[in-house]
Amino acid sequence: xxxxxxxxxxxxxxxxxxxxxIASASVLAATLIFETKASAYIGEGSSFLExxxxxxxxxxxxxxxxxxxxxVLMVAAGLWTRSxxxxxxxxxxxxxxxxxxxxxxxxxMTFHRLRQDVxxxxxxxxxxLAAVEATESRYRWAFERAAMGFANINDKGELLQSNRRLxxxxxxxxxxxxxxxxxxxxxxxxxxxxxxxxxxxGKDSASFASEVRLLRKNGSAFWARLTLSLSVxxxxxxxxxxxxxDDISGRRAVHxxxxxxxxxxxxxxxxxxxxxxxxDLKDGIVTGSGAFWDILGLPxxxxxxxxxxxxxxxxxxxxxxxxxxxxxxxxNYDVEIxxxxxxxxxxxxxxxxREEKYDDRLQRLGVAADLTExxxxxxxxxxxxxxxxxxxxxxxxxxxLFPVITALVNMVNVPENDVARYKETLIDRIRxxxxxxxxxxxxxxxxxxxxxxxxxxxQPYMGxxxxxxxxxxxxMSGGAAxxxxxxxxxxxxxxxxxGALGDSKGRVEVNWTFASEDGGGDIVFDWVESGRRRPPSxxxxxGFGSMIIGVDGAPLVGHSPKLEMTDHGLRYxxxxxxxxxxx
Length: 583
What we know:
By secondary structure, the chain is of the alpha+beta class. The protein has helices at residues 5-10, 14-42, 51-61, 64-86, 91-145, 164-170, 174-177, 182-185, 191-200, 249-271, 290-296, 372-411, 419-441, 450-458, 478-498, 544-549, 578-581; strands spanning 149-153, 159-162, 207-215, 221-230, 241-247, 274-280, 285-288, 304-305, 330-340, 346-358, 361-370, 448-449, 466-470, 475-476, 507-514, 523-530, 559-566, 569-576. Strand 15 (507-514) and strand 16 form a beta hairpin. Mean pLDDT is 78; it is low at 1-11 and 536-540.
């Protein structure tokens, strides 16, 4: 855009250069004429000093070469004049000539050096000017084509200059914007914020920003981040306030959507009585929502050390919070823990979420729910169902009791028309049935242990007779237990009347074993008596007792009965099926 010194000198027109040479030649000629006349009139007293002004003028007008040539010519002319007029050149003239030659050279070199310095200064200035102009050009290009809106306003808020983007945002042409004030573009509800920005400039800070709504030409509004900056130092307010307008409508919409989603999430968590939590397993830091700390019975806090939760988490459930040995990228996490709250109540809390690595840090995050009421309801329902089953079983057993009693009455014959003996026998059987029923009723499941059924019948003789009862633990259901108790009662009654229990030296051994080693087959029950029987007879009477133990057919419960009697003992064997006697 600008030219350097050399280019300007080379671009001088020929007339200018000719006039410069004529002026230099005229000064040189005038000086030579003056020197010649001065030498003629003054004589040897004239010096060469009258040439110095001419040398200065020529050095100023011409470059170093012409100035040195003119100096040499003046010295030669001065010496020639003195030689012609006086016939000789004195030593003093030679000294003056040399001095003039040196002075002229110094003057010419000085002007040449000054001229070079001026050229260099001009070149530097021109380079800086070119840089400024390039910077200004880039600024103008960026100003006009920027993705954000730019404008300059004065202290009154008048728009002095705006770019194309601001015009696109607002729908105004640049000429229309130049006739508006910035306040006109701001929504009425946000104009106070603009006033605060302008008031704060130059006082608190040189730059202020705020999110406001701007109005388009068609009256619609959009959100923008408005930044005002002073373009002069020291906070001096002048017509140089720089305005940056960034359209944040999309960002604002996303922000509002996220805020709405957070509100919906909080509402959903609150409605479901859920809480959020996060555990940094590397640092052992637990963070959670207010509802999370409320579930644990702890006061709200931003975060807590994981070790602090050991004070409220049940010791048996504390290992559930330990770090997994298998560190997978993402692992589902679902545990239930018990929490002892400060008031002493135990609460069941479910922690559901996932365990994952994030930025090489292992963490757990998810939701928490208080399951106490649900668990209590489940337990109450289970207890109610269990109670209902027991009541049904008791009712069923009670209903079945009457047919059993009826069968007892029908099966017992009147011995020799002795009603008293008939009554005694019947009452004895009913009492045995009653004892078994009471034993089974005492168990909530309605079942009984085989050992208890045998021990109950032999209990009255434990202190006076040698009796042993042994066998594995076997549980019998209600119906099977009642039938088996009647078999044991019949064996005990028969032993008391005719066998070991009726003899002070008699011995009774009762034992049972599993037919197979795995315990899944039949149970072999043995009743063995040792001692003198009375009366000694191998004849088996066929009556009610024989029907119960299965001598005349199938026993009340079990199968494959065997009865062996001798003068000195008795052995009764019975096999009980696991499916028949219950669990």
